[in-house]
Batch of 2 targets.
Target 1
Amino acid sequence: MARILVVDDDAAVQVTVRLLLERAGHSVVTADSGRNGLALCKTGDFDLLFLDIFMPGMDGFETMRMVRQHRPQMPIIVISGRLTTSDADGVPDFLTMATKLGAVSSLQKPFRPADLLAAVARCLHTAGCGASRPAGGVASSP
């Protein structure tokens, strides 16, 4: 299946997402910061990036901007634990903002495992990535 990079400063989210994706047959690498994720993106061959928006240091928006310079075609799914609100509340909807800036999908934490797997499947199908990559050396079938 696909090789996926998960960038989130919350270790529990990293583990949860990694386990869900690995059970679905994907190869997963995790990073605990935008800087570490960017370094891995520059050196690794990833089919998809899972990216938290709010992290200390380099946030998800800056990380996404830098990743786009090196890997402009890599699909990015952004995730955030901050509540989405309407502009009437004076707080921007950061997930929508991220998709307008280039993320192909977004998920609000906490998310259901089925929603995460569906978003990954849609992104990989749309990008034409990962479907032919063997998982564990064995070709997968739908």
Target 2
Amino acid sequence: MAVPSAKTLTVPGAQSIDRASALLRWIAREHVSGIALRDLVARTGLDRTTAWRIVSSLMNQGLVARDARSGLYHLGIEAMAWGAACMDRSPLVQACRPVMKSLARLSGDDVFLVLRSGDYSHCLHLEEGAHPVRSFALNVGGTRLLGLGVASIALLARLPEDALAQHYQRHREEYQSHELGLARLQRWAVQTRARGHSQIGAGGVAGVGLRFPMGSCGDAAMSIIAPRTRLSRARSEELARSMKSEIAGMLPQLAPMRAG
């Protein structure tokens, strides 16, 4: 996904903010593994001294942290605090609610919004259709391993094969408690990539899920879940097409600023 150049100006006099934002986006994208100053310089087009000064200022504000051993930069505590503050009035929920309401009216079934958080998926919001399953509301606010849920499978499928295998090994015991082996997760991921959406039925429940990008470095997904008797394979494909169309119209609101 493209990240704006630090040289791109959107508002007169906002050059410093634009540069700091570009650096933060790259640090956010590489948060888990960390990113070196030389790579920040290469990716933003800033000179080394300017990049170092801005990153040092971000560190002073707690938005960025530098690993003392590796010298690599990661997001800091204050960045996490900002993200946590958003959860009480999630901008993602605000942006997605009209689409979710539309899909709930169209399908008559429950529509979920899920956010990827590392190895897990977090259920942010539910819009009930005309035929709600009341127990589904208990999922809102819950966190599950990637792959344990229709929307979560759509998120899992984004992982490259080697990353998926490593993810499974980290959580083998919990997956095995759900009678899920690596081969099945890999099969679901392959099927999801081929279809462009996840689709599964188990235990009397069926659903379709679709992943979409959030900002410069995040992933989210929506799913429509219903009793299996209401969600045939043909209807699942029809609802998946509707989801893709509705979400495509919403994506510009979720995209990061683009370079001109």
